[in-house]
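Researcher: Before we compare anything, I want clean individual predictions. No alignment, no superposition, just each chain on its own. First chain goes here; please echo the sequence and then give the structure tokens.
Model: Echoing the first chain and its structure:
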Amino acid sequence: EFPYIGNFTAANNVEDLFSNSTQLQRFNSQYTHLDFTNARDMRETFYFCENLKELPPIHVTALSNTSGLFQTFNSCWSLQSVTFVGMTQGPSDGEYFRMFRHCRSLQYISGVDFSYANDAGDYSGLFDLCRNLARIDFPGDAGAETGFKYSVSLRYCPLDRDAILEIFDHLCTITHSATLTLTNNSYTSDLTAADKLIATNKGWTLSL
């Protein structure tokens, strides 16, 4: 357990802060949240915290540095949920490279704005081996385009119809070619033709 030493309000860069803390499992209960609101970079902040099981909500604002979300939670094998609160800006280069790669226990993500991607490579490895991810709640009101902008794969993720509709509702409207891959998921059979139109009317191709 990480002991309470006060919050991180003054930190303007938390890059690699807990990287490779392989024995870290949780934070002291006095951390009702982690205050990273002055940080502009969460590059590899929790990289390879393989035994980290739980995190309090992470309060952020503009994570606007180049590669500011690069491999942030990569190889957090035991982590079950991630919640961001207050995200107003993403990486200036749009890079979400391997942000949740190998988070094989991860079930829930909330508050991450994925819409700052600049090209198809920015989501490379984003959800590799995240085969327990059951829901992503995006920031903003219903229909806010804070979701995905380029092709992304969520294959093998056990997203039910409601969780898939949450993704559809927040997809960015696009004019380029992009595919949302939801294969190896039995819940996709619950989608209606009208459900699918939510995504395709925004320019997306669905791979079910």
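Researcher: Okay. Second chain, same rules.
Model: Second chain and its structure:
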Amino acid sequence: KIPARRRRCAPARFLLKLSATILALFLCALPLTADRAAAQVHLAQGNDLFNRKDMRGAIEAFSRAISEDPTWGEPWGMRGFVKYRDSNFTGAIEDLTIAIPMEPRRLDFRMYRVQTYLYLDRINEALEATEENNRLFPAESEVASQYGRALVRAGDVDRGLEIMNKAFEASGRDVRLSPRADAYFRKADWAALAQEAETAIAGGAPSM
């Protein structure tokens, strides 16, 4: 049964996705005005600026790449990622939502968008996005773990924790796929929460 809140939000989410998809398709219909070579130069500049922690400069470079070739999803996605890192979460979602139809196999763009939804507490959208990612990338433990996190945030703690546990084991116990502290906290399982912290620290994480 679909929760009433998700049913009420469905039309707005559908229109948002439809608008982003139409925009992406429109942009892809402009090959005669696209200059991919020039866009690649600006993309490389943006990546370099980001690596030097110049967020504003990177965003400007990616914007120039988009202006040169708006049909290429890579600069849209990278600009969205940098906006996320620069705490411009609404802008990040807008750019990543445009990038994903153009670069449907770019899992990192999809996961950054989910992370942004979770950060903004837009849980229903995070759930829908993680469900889609899980269908498209069923063998990716990282995708399953993020799906579990979204379920926990949505209140389905036991199911989310089960999925995260399976992803953790399937990954060879990669501590990056062990973000189970929230689930254990919600269950008031203090022993498991303490063990989670020890596992993370032993794996190289500085803190929870």
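Researcher: What stands out in the second chain?
Model: Residues 2 and 95 are 29 Å apart (CA to CA). Additionally, The longest helix spans residues 4-28.
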